[in-house]
Design a protein that fits this description.
32% helix; seven-stranded mixed β-sheet; globular; alpha/beta; 25% strand; 208 residues
Amino acid sequence: MKNNSNIQKYKRLAPFYDKFMGNRLFRKARQQAFSEIEVRQGDSLLLVGVGTGEDFPFLPAGASVTGIDLSEDMLRIAESKKISWDITLLQMNAEDMDFGNQKFEVIVLNLILSVVEHPEKVLEKSLNCLSPGGTLLIFDKFIDSNQKPNVVRRFLNKITSVIGTDITRDFYKIKSDFPIEITKEYKTINDLYTIIVARESLSNDISV
């Protein structure tokens, strides 16, 4: 299964991950994404696929933060970075995440929907964990809606799949069965990545 293979891939990748994903462009894009959300003192925030903790410097002050990841090796690196932040880290499969009755005002899905085997399951679980009126923040590499990936992107996907990332996914297809309203969406990093701010729709008038 892809999730099992991802554990092995990220075990090998973990020591080098920050060299690839900690560059100036990615840090600026992460900061840009977090600037789109409002978090009040005491609000709970969930980082799904926390990885090595590259999002930590951009976390809003005053939030109660939980981060989950499938990879023990990635979490070990994240643990070493959280000295200055009050963050609870848990090893957990995003497709099966369960926090009981606990809800989160903000759920962040940064670079995770392109990695997991079943992104629809992650989105469904996220909605189950989201507080009424809560915010979903998504930063990932999606193709334009209803557009087939071009030849170049399909070729590059063969390369990125080696590290467990699928760059040919359409977020609108992933979300099609769920009551999600997109409140903001735009491209970043030379139009290769997308930042999405969304919430659970409270009516039948769902953004498409």
